[in-house]
Amino acid sequence: QVPLVESGGGLVQPGGSLKLSCAASGFTLDGYPIGWFRQAPGKERERVSCTSGTTGSTSYADSVKGRFTISRDNAARNTEYLQMNNLKPEDSAVYYCALSCILPYNYWGQGTQVTVSS
User: Fold this and answer.
1) Predicted local confidence at residue 116, as pLDDT
2) Long-range pairs for 27-32: beta carbons < 8 A, 24 or more residues apart
3) How many Cα atoms sit within 13 Å of 110 on the Cβ side?
4) Amino acid 2: pLDDT
């Protein structure tokens, strides 16, 4: 059983927005580093963001900086969100979250497909 489940993907036009969710079942995300990754066809999986498990600060890949934002469900503390604005066709990929900011990682979920197209 994978620890995290992604959802919220879909088809959006360039310039549009999507909000992805990364949900833990049975535990909170407190203290865990959370990485968001994406993989487009024919390309390697790349990290989009990393939230530190100790400081809670988030860093972003240059390609998404200023457009993507991480937030947490402060009530249940078991969900992290990836708000994606001003989406571009090159953002199209399957998006994954992980209890790690580094690879390799062996507990991937199904991911959620994001397609940016007119």
Assistant:
1) 98
2) 27/3, 27/78, 28/76, 28/77, 28/78, 29/72, 29/77, 29/78, 29/79, 29/80, 30/77, 32/99
3) 9
4) 85
Give just the sign of the alpha carbon dihedral 91, 83, 46, 98: negative
Whose structure tokens read 């990836």? Answer: 82
Paired residues of 21 in beta bridges: 7, 81
- Sign of the CA dihedral with 46 first, then 74, 6, and 107 last: positive
pLDDT one-digit tens code per residue, 36-62: 999 999 999 999 999 999 999 999 999
- 46, two tokens: 């790349």
